[in-house]
Each structure stands twice: as structure tokens, then as C-alpha cells.
Amino acid sequence: MQKIPLHIISGFLGSGKTTFLKQILGKYSDEVRIGVIQNEFAPASIDGVFLKKTSRNFSLLEIKNGSVFCVCLLGTFTRSLESFIDEHRPEAIIVESSGLSDTTSIAEVVSSGNLAEKIYLATNWCIVDAQNFSKVGIQKQRVTHQLRMADEVIINKIDLEPEKTPEIKSEIKRINPFAEIRESSFCSVDFELGKVFGDKFYFSEAKTLPRPEINAMVIKSGKKVSQKALEGFLAEWSPKAYRIKGFVNLSERKTVAVQCTLGTMEIEETELSFQSTELIALTENFTLREWNKAFKELG
Questions:
Q1: Per-residue pLDDT at 196
Q2: For residue 96, which of 121, 122, 70, 68 has the smallest C-alpha distance?
Q3: How many CB atoms lie within 10 A of CB 179?
Q4: What's residue 121's pLDDT?
């Protein structure tokens, strides 16, 4: 069985996630078997009902009463997702996460147990509501966390208050200097199903071009390392990975954003600080055990 690309759509409540998902289904559902995972914080499945009314061809797995990325629910989610894949055999999976979810943990889920043999993390999208971005209040930390690990960010609803867009874009770049930012109304942006960090896998060619055996793995650590040690670590491991990204707390009392793609390395200081280092790698050339051991041994 070829590995299935999994795309995450995150964003705060009301940002436009379901609208974006509807557009993706409208473009691809007639030619690709799509599995949709909808995660609602409430027990009632309002978005699921709304999505079904589109009459598009897709399979739906609904997770209610909390985030699929909550540690206490990961076991249940993993079992549900495995059964869903076995039953429906999707060619691509899209997760519409709760507006309150922590999306970093999805990489750990994807890389664990039997799921690692079936799926890989393709892209992580985050949608920002231009009109209400500054109004999320005490949930700003969750929004920031969704943004910091995103590959693509959509600033949505720019038609409502266009004057706010430059400030929002600047804030996103401060949080995640390497994210690709797109501006839109009604989430009208191009989405390539199967795209993985710049490399495209077209479903029409699936029989001759098998999907890569990509594994996603995560390092979460309270260890602080020197910038010199970090550079050496990335110089060793980035040529073996499609991508390494994340944030690292340094012993020099600063935090840096990291992005490595096919051997290239970017390290940029950020004014944000985080409790722990978080790095995600996508690769087929080393294991989490090897990678984690190397990081622990850094001076």
C-alpha cells in the first residue's frame, strides 16, 4: 500500500476552514478518493452537516468533544484513523482541525505505530481571519502555535478590512519567518492535493510514480544548545531530509526559527520564546531514534 498524503487545515474559530475544505472537495472529489477528518470542539457536528450538503464525493470521519491533537485523545484518534483508512482506502486525507487544537502533535501521530506505514504529513495550512485576528484574546497562544508550525498561511477575508493586511502579514512573519503567506477572500487560493513542500505528486500519474516513503518525526526537548552545535547538527542531518523545520532554544538565551530543505539551511532569530524546542523532520533516510539520540548528545 502506498503512503497517503495527509494535509492539515488549522485556524481559529470562524476563520474559513470549512469554506477552504469545500473548495478543495469541489476541485478534486470527482477524480480522487478523499478522506476528510473533521474535528469539532463541541458535541454537535454542525460543520459536518454543512459539508455533507455539498453533495461531493468523499468519506468523512468526525471527531467530537475535543481536539484530535489533545494527548488524552490521541489513542482513540489513532485507532479511529486506522480503521477509517482500512475501510475507505482514501488517496488523500485532509484534517480540518478544531480552532482550539495544537497541530504540532499531528506529526507525532503520523509517525507512530501502524500509521507510519500508511500516511505521511504533506502540508500544514493555517487560515487567519483578517477581520478578527486581533480579537482572539486569551486564545492568542493557540493561534500563535498553529501559525508557527504552518507551511502555508492564508490571510482570509481581506476584502472586509484590507487596511489590516500589512500589519497581520508582519505579525505572521514575526511568528513564522519561513511560512508562505497568501491573501484571499473566501479562501480562494490554489491548493494542490498531494503537494509536499514544493514537490508535486500528481494522482493521474500514481501508477507510474509511487508516492515517496516519507516519515514525519518530532523532537521536543527542554535542552538548550549553542548555535554552533545546532549548525553542526543541521549540517549533518538536513542533507538526509526533505525538510527540517521548527524552533530551537539556544544556550545563548535566544530562540531561533529553523528551516532546512534538501541540504539548504536557514536559521533566523525570533523575538518569541517557547518552553521547549520543537523540530519536525520529513525523511526516508533516518529514524527518530537516531535523530533524537544525536540531538541529546549535542554540547
A1: 57
A2: 68
A3: 22
A4: 83
* Residue 113 DSSP symbol: G
Q: Is the Cβ–Cβ distance between 115 and 66 less than 8 Å?
A: no
Cell of 8: 492539515
Contact 151, 197 (CB under 8 A): yes
Q: What local confidence, expressed as pLDDT, does residue 183 receive?
A: 94
Do the strands 152-156 and 119-129 form a parallel or antiparallel pair, or are they unpaired?
parallel
Amino acid at site 125: W
Residue among 153, 205, 202 nearest 11 (CA)? 153
Instruction: Give 91-105 as a DSSP string.
Output: SEEEEE--TT--TTH
**pLDDT (tens digit, 9 = 90+) per residue, 259-273?**
887 667 889 998 777
What residues have CB less than 8 Å from 275, skipping those under 6 apart? Answer: 222
Residue 211 pLDDT more than 70? no
Q: How many Cβ atoms from other residues are within 10 Å of residue 276's Cβ? A: 13
Cα-Cα-Cα-Cα torsion 205, 194, 48, 12, nearest 10 degrees, comes to -170
Are 274 and 250 within 8 A, CB to CB? no
The CA distance from 98 to 236, in Å, is 36
Rounded distance between C-alpha atoms, residue 255 and residue 276, angstroms: 10
Position 125 scores a pLDDT of 92
Average pLDDT, the chain: 80
pLDDT, greater one: 169 or 67: 169
| Residue 29 CB contacts under 8 Å (≥ 6 apart), including other chains | 56, 57, 58
Give the pLDDT band of residue 237 (cuts 50, 70, 90). Answer: very high
